[in-house]
Amino acid sequence: MDAKDADPADEWPLPPVWMWECRDCVVLYKAMKRAPEIVDAARRELGPGVDCDPMDSILSTQIRLAEHIAARHPDDVPAVDEACATCVSDVGDARLPASLVLRHRARHLFVPPSIVGSW
Ligand SMILES: [Zn+2]
Ligand SMILES: [Zn+2]
Asked: Whole domain around residue 60: which residue ranges?
């Protein structure tokens, strides 16, 4: 193993098969995966110091996909991940709306473990 090897915690998981069977999931997933590429391309072109993602497209595309899964595929949202601090604290917080809890757990399906706990 050398230092260039990707950290598995940074790897994007392969989405489950049922997501590919839902047209909305596919569209939202592709938009989410494209957003960083578009921002990267803009950054290469414009250089540092310019806000290349003024619409927060990277985050907002993730939120849209998570919200769609929470709303349309609640039965397919993964169970609480005991290793995830956000999952565990969500469960302990009865004031949180169920939709927000589901939205976070839906993220486990499609974002790398290293950022899944960020919201
Ligand atoms: Zn869907
Ligand atoms: Zn979690």
From this structure: 17-114
